[in-house]
Every structure is written in C-alpha cells, then in structure tokens.
Amino acid sequence: KGLKKYFPITGGLLRKTVGYVKAVDGVDLFIKRAETLGLVGESGCGKSTLGRAILRLIDATEGEITYNGQNILELTKEEMRELRKKMQIIFQDPYASLNPRMTVGDIVGEPMDIFGLAKGREKEERILELLNIVGLDVQHIRRYPHEFSGGQRQRIGIARALAVNPEIIICDEPVSALDVSVRSQVLNLMQELQQKFQLTYLFISHDLSVVKHISDRVCVMYLGKIVEVSEKNELYSNPLHPYTKALLSAIPIPDPEAKRERIILEGDVPTPINPPTGCRFHTRCQYAMPVCSQQEPILKDIGNEHFVACHLY
Ligand code: SF4
Ligand code: MG
C-alpha cells in the first residue's frame, strides 16, 4: 500500500543527494493466495525493484507491505528471518545467480543449511527429491552449473527456491534468458509446481505473451506506477489504459487474416528522475487531454476487480 522506492542520486565533490530515481512511486497492489499475478511493463519501469522491495531484499522508502495480515516492514530481524523461508525469488539469469564453484547438490542444499532445516542423510534425500521434482536427473547432484543448459540451470534455481517450502515466489523474468523452445517447458513446470504446492507467484516479465500463458491476473506498470490491473482474459480482450492497449497491439497475432491496429508509442520512456506531471503517460498518449498533464489519475475499480488509472474512465 502506497509503496515507494527512491534511489538517491549523488553529485558534486561532497557527494550530496541531488535528486532521486523514483523507481517505485506509490504502488497499491494485492496478490491472492495460490494465484499468479503477472507484472508487466517496459524495462526500467520499476518491476524488479517492486519485486525486491516486497521481499525486503531492498528497503522500501515509504509504504506498507502486508503479508497474511502482518506489516512486514515492522518485523524485527529475527521475525523477518522466519518469514524469509516463506518468500523466495527466482532470477532471470540462472547462470549468474548460481555459484559456479558449488555443485548442484550444494546449491540446492544451501538454503537448508542457512535455515537449519535438514542435515546429513535427510538433507541429501531432500536434495534428490527436489531434483526429481524439477525434472533433473539425480545423477547430476555432483556436477557444476556450467555443465548444464539454460533451461536446466533455471530448474536448479527453482529447486533451490523450493528447498525451504516457500509460500510465495517472486519470479523475475525467469524465462526471458531461455531459448523459445525451452521456455514453455519451464513455464509448464512452474505451473505444475504451483498446483502441487499451492504456491503464489508474482511473475515479472516484459513479455506479454509469456505473462498471458501463466497468469491469473495481470498488472501493468509504467514509470513506477500501476496503470491497470485485471483478471487475465479481461485484460487481454478488453484493455482500457492507452498504455496497455499499445503494449498489447505490439504482440504478433498468429492469424494473418486477423486485423488489429498496431499502436506505435511515440518517444522514449521519460526518466524516473523527473517523471511527467499528472498522468505520467501523457507525453506519449494519443488520447491525452488538458487535465492529463495537471492531475494524476488514481487507480479505480471500474467493476469486477478491473482497475485502471486514466482520466478517460
Ligand atoms: Fe492518456 Fe490522459 Fe489516460 Fe493518461 S490519463 S492515459 S494521458 S488519457
Ligand atoms: Mg528487471
């Protein structure tokens, strides 16, 4: 609720703060248990920052994050440590996030050491079980990350995240670095695991077709703000925000006969240091009205949990 993350910019000899990158600038959002909430937007819109702030991997500047009724920004270090087990993250580049000097077994077992969950024989059995769950050959336990393909490495990353029996996983572009041919395999695996363990996902991606595949609801972000949130099919068939419409119009449609107007977004994404006044999208919006540069539209529920922040509605 009202979540903000500002990164200070320093300048001059004294390294004084001369401004802020307003990466996340007043976000209101809810995620339902065992659902997948897709979070989409162009690179630099604040998606990853939001994901990390939710897990407290970075400290929010302002706002509230409530998990099961508890404001986690008020938790002590000890309490936060307990909660960490329930919240995991999977990264875009499985190679960069796996220690190259550790074997697969050690990588998957490490979270169990950190949280004191299992040791010795029990831990070994659990590692084998996890490798099995993510579809990796248990023979691989003593191998190193570089011996695996991208898809296999992401499976290792997923096994590591599952090692602590999490409830929610922030998935930050988990298939973006993978070949198209293995993407759907990894997505299908993630869906199976969700069913099996009742996992909740916040699925971050710049790719609307990937998000469509996996999400129950989709949330669209632009320059640190949420501009639209809705149930998936509703959002893809009835996008309301002009930015969402433009993003969707850029997805190629398989049927060459189907006609759809391609909306070309003019200009670059403005800087999050000095975002435009009023509606942040007004510099690129073909429907912009005088009010748009003066007054910030608030995120409104226009029915059936379809939220949009635009003066047109
Ligand atoms: Fe466009 Fe105005 Fe709506 Fe912003 S508020 S998206 S500028 S019509
Ligand atoms: Mg990112």
From TrEMBL:
Residues 1-248 form the ABC transporter domain. Keywords: ATP-binding, Nucleotide-binding, Transport. InterPro entries: AAA+_ATPase (IPR003593), ABC_transp_ATP-bind (IPR050319), ABC_transporter-like_ATP-bd (IPR003439), ABC_transporter-like_CS (IPR017871), Oligopep_ABC_C (IPR013563), P-loop_NTPase (IPR027417). GO terms for biological process: peptide transport; transmembrane transport. This is Oligopeptide transport system ATP-binding protein. PROSITE patterns: ABC_TRANSPORTER_1 (PS00211), ABC_TRANSPORTER_2 (PS50893). One of its GO terms (molecular function) is ATP hydrolysis activity. It comes from the Bacteria. The keyword NADP does not apply. Transmembrane segments: none annotated. The keyword Lipid biosynthesis does not apply. Belongs to the ABC transporter superfamily.
